[in-house]
Amino acid sequence: MLNDAESKLAPNLKSTYTNFIFFPCVALLTISFPLPIAYNSILSIILFVLFLIDVKNIRTNLISCFRNKRNILLLIIFFCLLISIFYSQDKVLAKKGILAALPLLVLPVSLIRMATLSPKQIHILKKLFVFVCLIASAVYLILAIIRSGLTDDSYKLQILPINYLPYFVNKLTYHHLSPNIHAIFFSLYIAFAVFLILFQFKKTSSFSKIWQGLLVLYFFIYLILLTSATINFGLYSFLIGCIFFKFSFKKLFHYVIFFGSLIAATGITGYLLILKYIGPYAGDGIYRFDSPSMNEKYLFSFLAVMIIGASAIIIKLTIRKNYIAILLSSIVFIGISLFVYFKHFIDTKRTSPESINNVTVRFSYGADAIRIIKKDPIFGIGIGDKKNKAIVKTEELPPGSLPEHAFNSHNQFLDFWISAGIIPAICFLLFLINEFSTAIRYKHIVYLGLVYCFCLFCLTDMAMMVQRGQIFFLFFICLFENELEKRSLSNFDTQ
Fold first, then answer.
1. CB burial string 348-372: b at 16+ within 10 A, e below
2. Average pLDDT by consecutive 10-residue portion of the chain (495 residues)?
3. Contact, 257 vs 247, CB < 8 A?
4. Which residues lie across from 406 on neighbouring strands?
5. How many CB atoms neighbour CB 315 within 10 A?
6. Most buried residue among 68, 274, 367, 417 by CB atoms closer than 10 A?
7. Are 381 and 89 in contact (CB under 8 A)?
8. What are phi and psi of 177, to 5 degrees?
9. Rounded CA gap, 386 and 388, in Å?
10. Is 301 left (phi over 0), alpha (psi -120 to 50) or beta?
11. In this predicted structure, what is the pLDDT of residue 9?
């Protein structure tokens, strides 16, 4: 047992360790998110080393870590992937896959000390993240402008005046604005920064309101330039959902803001979807509305969204108690209907070369993934044998892909299922359900927005088998969970 002097000293030592060692490392990790992935990985390793150095508390920290349902599910996913090495023929690729999945095991343990962070330190980390996104995006934008030749007029020597617009659209969008990070990840970071600004930061003065409003507008524009239809849809749909649940629709401006937001969001996401995924795509980054059939679908999307929005308001005003359950059921039904429609549309158009686009290719990959899963639904084919040659026909591979390359199903659930069977796929689904449940139970809007956008991301890509996605998502859900625990304890003490 500790004597009186040691008892007084122990909390001070813990506080010193948190303030001068752990918190600076966590702050550096926060700063590193928009930077090359090497910085993320190195700082994650440093945090794990700090966990190992704290020998006296390892057992306590491990017990505390694996009392959490979320961490147990991540542990099961990791060990299922690890076991799949033994029935993978390509051991080298299997080991690379396990190294990529290592944060699923290491990061929750390394971040267990987040419970010692004060509310002020947690708030600093949030502000630091927004600041880093602002600085990184501004630097990337300036570099893109310089490289385009706009500052010295060198672009005039490269192209004809008639091609100026396509040239600058190409040079000032997508990966040119995120050279050190894939555009969809940077889009996720910026969308999360918008959530933090809107819902977490207090607007105490007129200046702060104007500044934060301009910052949100800047991030909205930058998101459009990054051209991620998935993240733009996630951000706008979540914000419109917040508007819908907040407004009583007893005043005229409620309808103006709600339907105005619907129109703007549909216009932006619809255009990005046409441009990037559906087509026709002329190859210069601009859709000129020269396809009558596509224009009809674009206009129909506005009409459909307005009808859905009006129906949701009517349901809310007439069925006051159970309207949320009815709306959720309607959303699920609409989602399934859209999936069936797109699948039928793609199946009927797949034989036509001019109809091949990003959506048809991704649906084809999904169909190939399901075909392989049916052969071995319990254990999968092994993380090392998840190759194009085993799943996709060579003639259907996109440019730059080889038969020996790892197969990309563009869906995290399917990827886990192919790699290690049904257990990690189910655990990942339960993991996301648990995060949704926690965010809804504590009414944490930013937490819920992050989980929602990340879930959409996982439906269109393999966000949880890329270290940049793992580290970012696990870091912030751990941060929010500890914030919620502190809030609960504070409320309990007050009572």
1. eeeeeeebbbbbbbbbbbbebbeeb
2. 44 73 95 91 93 88 90 96 94 91 93 90 96 97 94 87 88 91 95 96 86 96 95 96 93 96 96 77 71 89 93 88 77 74 61 61 83 92 86 64 81 94 96 95 95 95 92 96 82 57
3. yes
4. 387
5. 16
6. 417
7. no
8. -95, 5
9. 7
10. alpha
11. 43
Which residue is listed with tokens 């009809």?
296
Within 10 angstroms of residue 166's Cβ, the number of other Cβ atoms is: 15
Residue 387 pairs in a beta bridge with 406
Select from 34, 216, 224, 235 the least CA-distant residue to 135.
34
Cβ neighbours of 302 (radius 10 Å): 14
**Residue whose token pair is 């290592």:** 102
Contact 452, 488 (CB under 8 A): no
CA 151 to chain centre: 34
Q: CA-CA distance, 38 to 427, in Å (whole number)? A: 28
Please tell me the predicted confidence (pLDDT) of residue 7: 44
Closest by CA position to 485, among listed 477, 127, 434: 477
φ and ψ at 406, to 5 degrees? -65, 140
Residues found in the chain: 495
* 14's tokens: 């813990």
- C-alpha torsion angle, residues 114, 119, 122, 123 (rounded to 10): 180
φ, ψ at 250 (rounded to 5°) = -105, -5
Which of helix, strand or coil describes residue 387?
Answer: strand
Please state, as a whole number, how many other Cβ atoms lie within 10 Å of the Cβ of residue 237.
Answer: 17
115 touches 21 (CB < 8 A): no
- The structure tokens listed for 249 are 């629709």
Q: CB–CB of 40/30 below 8 Å?
A: no
Q: pLDDT value at position 161?
A: 86
Q: Do 190 and 226 touch, CB atoms closer than 8 A?
A: yes
Nearest to 116 by CA among 192, 17, 25, 31: 17
Query: What values do phi and psi take at 272, rounded to 5?
Result: -65, -35
Residue type (1 letter), 38: A
What are the tokens at 222? 């930058």
Q: Which residues touch 141 (CB under 8 Å, ≥6 apart)?
A: 172, 177, 222
Q: Which amino acid is at 297?
A: K
Dist CA 303 CA 263 (whole Å)? 9
CB-CB neighbours of 244 under 10 Å: 18
Q: Residue type for 463, please?
A: A
